[in-house]
Amino acid sequence: MKHLIWAVWTAVFFTAAHGQPVRVGVIEAVINTDRVLSLTVYRSADGERYVQLKDLSEMLGGSLSFNPKTKYTVMAAQGQNVYFYPDVDYLVYNTDRINLNAPILNAAGRMYVPESLLTMSEFLTPMSIETKLTADRSVLMVNYIDNVVLNYFIVRDEAEVQVEMRRPMYHEFAVDRGVVTLTFFGGRLAPKEYGIMDGILTRMTVQQVGGNAVLSLHPAVVDVDIRRSTAPGRVTVTVVRRSSSPPVACGISPSSAPDTVLGEELPPPAERPKVIVIDPGHGGRDPGAVGPSGTQEKHVNLAIAKKVRALLVSAGWTVYLTREDDTFVPLVERTAFANAKRADVFLSIHCNAAVKARSGEKGFEAYSLAEYATDPDAVAAERLENEAIRFEQPTKAQEKLQKLLWSLVLNEYMNDSSRLCGLIAREVVQRTDLKHRGVKQAGFYVLRGAQMPAVLLECGFISNPFEEARLMKPEFQMSIADGIASGIRQYHAACAGR
Length: 498
Ligand SMILES: [Zn+2]
Hints:
Helices cover 27% and strands 34% of the residues. It is of the alpha+beta class. The chain has a seven-stranded mixed beta sheet with strand order 9-10-3-2-1-12-11. The structure holds zinc ion.
């Protein structure tokens, strides 16, 4: 009998220590507000929560290799090497040790790591990754933070590309056969290819090469002046056409595929309808941001939108608003409406709010849609505006469609959108003394699926008492509206008949 009890006890103990972890649920990891990765959650016999190391590695964009001699697995992710040893309650991060709340498990050839790693800043911060787990532990927001931020303004005869370095880093500048290359050592910037349709630059690319961010600018013509200027934490490159070179026609970039233009009879510029859908952000049960004196963002957005409408109507545009009054419109329907109206431009009007109420943040920002937010402010604005999604319950089919549209149209309209942002921001800042916070990109839900250039404007900080007071004034709203309308007119004039 004694023997049997002992046998049972060892069996239980053995299972507890070395048994296969049991699947208990799933965490949906939303990466940069775009990609979703499902992480299966397991529970060990000790009651600790785990995820598989291979899933963690995929979420962090890492690669795994197993060393059969030493039995550890090394994960190389975002320039960091992390060593996982089975059955110990720590890991080795480059050369440092990080203690864990539970041991790393190895069962049936799979490695399991404590779920706590998903939110451990000690583990994630050196990789420039930020995460947030919802209270019910079902969704994990994963944001890759760039330490190099790109702002650019490109028109026919001039390009200004500004790179901000979020931490001190060495950079190199080179011009070879007309191509400008900037290398930021230790720089992190999401790789991207910008195909520019009608600017002085035909192409701009960002690559990650051996832990460095490399930016290449390809001018459209040979006859350009290239200048570089530096300031602490910032480098600016300007490419300006010398007056003798012939202008590049709008939309007929040498790199553009001709089959997208052929077979389509476009009306001459003069007859082209100018259709815009203006989207006053929020509305109805969704007030948007609320200022210290209680001003609700939705009312300011609508007032500015109506003023822009009046100005554009008098300039011969056909203007539709996504809402005429204080009603709730789901985000998905706003772009769907613009698509249905076959609008040339979609413009979403908002006011910003600082994360910390008394931080004194102020100024104007223009955003185009991108997969990744360009900097921490863009991440904050994206979160703020995407919050509106909690006021609605989109169906699975709507979400799927939205995702599909998003992947189809992203590259096609990205450059036009960011050009439009640049023009609007310049005009608004000229007419108001709003601080120019830059032309940025972020993953706003409201812009997703728009089959036309689409921008989101943050017309000042309603969280700042001074700007809140100004935003309520009709004259100030009018100055903003006038800047917006002027930017849109310039944009259309440059690209009519395309
Ligand atoms: Zn808003």
